[in-house]
Amino acid sequence: MIVKMAKEHGxxxxxxxxxxxxEINPNEYVIYRxxxxxxxxxxxxxxxxxxxxxxxxxxxxxYDLVWYHTLIVAKSGRLVxxxxxxxxxxxxxxxxxxxxxxxxxKGIDLxxxxxxxxxxxxxxxxxxxxxxxxxxKRYEEQLSVxxxxxxx
Length: 152
Prior knowledge:
The structure is a single chain. By secondary structure, the protein is mainly α. The chain has one domain (21-145): Four Helix Bundle (Hemerythrin (Met), subunit A) (Up-down Bundle), CATH 1.20.120. It is built from 5 helices and no strands. Helix 2 (30-52) runs antiparallel to helix 3, helix 2 packs antiparallel against helix 5 and helix 4 runs antiparallel to helix 5. The chain is elongated and about 65 Å long.
Protein backbone atom coordinates (compact mmCIF):
# COMPACT_ATOMS: atom_id res chain seq x y z
CA MET A 1 0.00 0.00 0.00
CA ILE A 2 2.79 2.44 0.85
CA VAL A 3 4.65 1.58 -2.35
CA LYS A 4 1.50 2.20 -4.37
CA MET A 5 0.92 5.57 -2.70
CA ALA A 6 4.55 6.57 -3.25
CA LYS A 7 4.33 5.73 -6.95
CA GLU A 8 1.07 7.69 -7.24
CA HIS A 9 2.96 10.73 -5.91
CA GLY A 10 5.81 10.28 -8.37
CA UNK A 11 8.27 8.71 -5.96
CA UNK A 12 10.23 5.89 -7.52
CA UNK A 13 10.70 3.47 -4.65
CA UNK A 14 13.19 1.27 -6.48
CA UNK A 15 15.60 4.21 -6.76
CA UNK A 16 15.62 5.01 -3.05
CA UNK A 17 18.73 4.17 -1.10
CA UNK A 18 18.17 1.72 1.68
CA UNK A 19 20.72 2.56 4.30
CA UNK A 20 20.32 0.90 7.66
CA UNK A 21 19.22 3.22 10.43
CA UNK A 22 22.06 4.10 12.78
CA GLU A 23 22.13 1.93 15.87
CA ILE A 24 22.08 3.50 19.28
CA ASN A 25 22.45 1.80 22.62
CA PRO A 26 20.39 3.87 25.06
CA ASN A 27 22.29 2.34 27.97
CA GLU A 28 25.33 4.38 26.90
CA TYR A 29 23.59 7.49 28.26
CA VAL A 30 23.35 8.42 31.94
CA ILE A 31 19.88 9.91 31.42
CA TYR A 32 18.48 6.65 30.07
CA ARG A 33 20.12 4.53 32.74
CA UNK A 34 18.58 6.70 35.46
CA UNK A 35 15.17 6.43 33.81
CA UNK A 36 15.50 2.68 33.50
CA UNK A 37 16.66 2.31 37.10
CA UNK A 38 13.62 4.29 38.25
CA UNK A 39 11.35 2.20 36.01
CA UNK A 40 12.75 -1.06 37.42
CA UNK A 41 12.33 -0.04 41.06
CA UNK A 42 8.91 1.53 40.45
CA UNK A 43 7.72 -1.64 38.71
CA UNK A 44 8.64 -3.72 41.78
CA UNK A 45 6.89 -1.25 44.07
CA UNK A 46 3.79 -1.24 41.86
CA UNK A 47 3.66 -5.05 41.95
CA UNK A 48 3.93 -4.98 45.75
CA UNK A 49 1.04 -2.53 45.97
CA UNK A 50 -1.06 -4.59 43.58
CA UNK A 51 -0.47 -7.72 45.67
CA UNK A 52 -1.23 -5.97 48.95
CA UNK A 53 -4.18 -4.03 47.57
CA UNK A 54 -4.33 -0.37 46.69
CA UNK A 55 -5.96 1.75 49.39
CA UNK A 56 -8.99 3.51 47.85
CA UNK A 57 -7.70 6.95 48.87
CA UNK A 58 -4.53 6.34 46.80
CA UNK A 59 -6.05 4.95 43.61
CA UNK A 60 -5.44 8.10 41.57
CA UNK A 61 -1.84 8.35 42.77
CA UNK A 62 -1.32 4.66 42.07
CA TYR A 63 -2.56 4.99 38.49
CA ASP A 64 -0.41 8.10 37.98
CA LEU A 65 2.60 6.12 39.16
CA VAL A 66 1.76 3.21 36.88
CA TRP A 67 1.32 5.46 33.85
CA TYR A 68 4.27 7.78 34.35
CA HIS A 69 6.87 5.21 35.34
CA THR A 70 6.56 3.74 31.83
CA LEU A 71 6.21 7.08 30.10
CA ILE A 72 9.42 8.46 31.63
CA VAL A 73 11.56 5.55 30.45
CA ALA A 74 9.88 5.44 27.01
CA LYS A 75 10.37 9.16 26.44
CA SER A 76 13.96 8.87 27.68
CA GLY A 77 14.59 6.21 25.07
CA ARG A 78 13.07 8.48 22.44
CA LEU A 79 15.20 11.37 23.64
CA VAL A 80 18.51 9.53 23.34
CA UNK A 81 17.55 7.92 20.03
CA UNK A 82 17.28 11.42 18.58
CA UNK A 83 20.88 12.22 19.46
CA UNK A 84 22.14 10.53 16.27
CA UNK A 85 19.28 11.47 13.95
CA UNK A 86 21.01 12.98 10.93
CA UNK A 87 17.79 13.22 8.92
CA UNK A 88 16.22 16.21 10.64
CA UNK A 89 17.87 19.61 10.86
CA UNK A 90 19.31 21.01 14.07
CA UNK A 91 16.43 23.41 14.77
CA UNK A 92 13.81 20.69 14.41
CA UNK A 93 15.87 18.32 16.53
CA UNK A 94 16.19 20.96 19.25
CA UNK A 95 12.43 21.57 19.12
CA UNK A 96 11.71 17.84 19.39
CA UNK A 97 14.15 17.43 22.28
CA UNK A 98 12.59 20.29 24.22
CA UNK A 99 9.10 18.87 23.69
CA UNK A 100 10.21 15.44 24.89
CA UNK A 101 11.94 16.96 27.92
CA UNK A 102 8.77 18.87 28.82
CA UNK A 103 6.76 15.64 28.74
CA UNK A 104 9.39 13.90 30.89
CA UNK A 105 9.41 16.78 33.40
CA LYS A 106 5.62 16.65 33.70
CA GLY A 107 5.85 12.89 34.29
CA ILE A 108 8.48 13.46 36.97
CA ASP A 109 6.38 16.12 38.70
CA LEU A 110 3.22 14.00 38.72
CA UNK A 111 5.16 10.93 39.86
CA UNK A 112 6.79 12.83 42.71
CA UNK A 113 3.40 14.21 43.77
CA UNK A 114 1.91 10.71 43.77
CA UNK A 115 4.85 9.29 45.72
CA UNK A 116 4.80 12.10 48.27
CA UNK A 117 1.12 11.46 48.92
CA UNK A 118 1.84 7.73 49.24
CA UNK A 119 4.67 8.53 51.66
CA UNK A 120 2.24 9.88 54.21
CA UNK A 121 -0.31 7.11 53.70
CA UNK A 122 1.99 4.07 53.38
CA UNK A 123 4.55 4.29 56.19
CA UNK A 124 5.52 0.62 55.72
CA UNK A 125 6.94 1.58 52.31
CA UNK A 126 8.90 4.59 53.55
CA UNK A 127 12.32 3.44 52.28
CA UNK A 128 11.06 2.33 48.88
CA UNK A 129 9.11 5.53 48.27
CA UNK A 130 12.00 7.70 49.46
CA UNK A 131 14.34 5.82 47.11
CA UNK A 132 11.97 6.34 44.15
CA UNK A 133 11.72 10.07 44.92
CA UNK A 134 15.51 10.28 45.13
CA UNK A 135 15.87 8.55 41.74
CA UNK A 136 13.45 11.05 40.22
CA LYS A 137 15.43 13.94 41.70
CA ARG A 138 18.69 12.53 40.30
CA TYR A 139 17.04 12.13 36.91
CA GLU A 140 15.68 15.68 37.04
CA GLU A 141 19.13 16.99 37.92
CA GLN A 142 20.68 15.11 35.00
CA LEU A 143 18.10 16.70 32.69
CA SER A 144 19.33 20.09 33.85
CA VAL A 145 23.04 19.27 33.69
CA UNK A 146 23.73 17.24 30.54
CA UNK A 147 21.21 15.08 28.70
CA UNK A 148 23.94 13.78 26.37
CA UNK A 149 26.37 12.60 29.05
CA UNK A 150 27.60 9.12 28.35
CA UNK A 151 28.31 6.50 31.00
CA UNK A 152 31.89 6.11 32.04
